[in-house]
Write a structure and sequence with these properties.
By secondary structure, the protein is an alpha/beta fold. The chain has seven helices and seven strands; from the N terminus they run αααβαβαβαβαβββ. Helix content is about 35%, strand content about 20%. Strands 2-1-3-4-5-6-7 form a seven-stranded mixed β-sheet, sandwiched between helices.
Length: about 180
């Protein structure tokens, strides 16, 4: 590994205040809908998905907590297993603790209900410090924000899938959120 690559790998993945200036407010969440929850379950139970265990991650706001709890109840009602439910603040020193808690159990998939800013910080930490795979991650509509891939960096979220409030789906392809 080159010295430059090692130096870049060891840098903190935190988003600094200067980077945030151009992105505007990324703290908004909305209540989840039944159509959104059904679409999310549909993504996880698609033919050949073989997803049985999930770890749920969520911001600490009321909308994200309610979405995470609704997903957990629906997932367990259909026989799935929730390995852990991990929350995080919108501002933290490093996001390392929630990143490790999300990945320690090695779930089949991750489900995220969060405000974009906190999730962006967490996603950068997850990619920098764990074996997290965005292609095995599914999200509620609050993370369907076209600014999110730009904020997290190249390919940090490539493969992330999600549901919209009206029951459609979306995914991240490199730097684009596609519906």
């Amino acid at each position: 590994m080159s010295i430059r690559a090692e130096r870049n790998r060891s840098r903190s993945p935190l988003i600094d205040a200067a980077e945030l200036v151009d992105f505007g407010d990324l703290s908004a969440t909305t209540p989840h809908t039944e159509a959104e929850l059904a679409a999310l379950i549909g993504l996880l139970t698609a033919p050949k998905s073989r997803i049985e265990t999930v770890t749920i991650g969520h911001s600490r706001d009321a909308d994200s907590l309610a979405a995470a709890e609704a997903f957990a109840a629906a997932w367990e009602a259909r026989g799935g297993k929730v390995l852990a439910s991990v929350d995080w603040p919108e501002a933290a020193a490093s996001w390392l603790r929630p990143a490790r808690r999300l990945t320690v159990e090695e779930p089949d998939a991750w489900v995220m209900a969060a405000a974009p800013l906190g999730f962006a910080q967490l996603a950068r930490r997850l990619r920098h410090s764990t074996d997290w795979d965005p292609a095995r991650t599914f999200a509620f509509a609050s993370l369907r924000d076209s600014r999110l891939p730009a904020l997290t960096g190249p390919d940090t979220l490539h493969g992330l899938h999600g549901a919209t409030t009206d029951g459609a789906t979306w995914h991240v392809r490199h730097r684009w959120v596609m519906s």
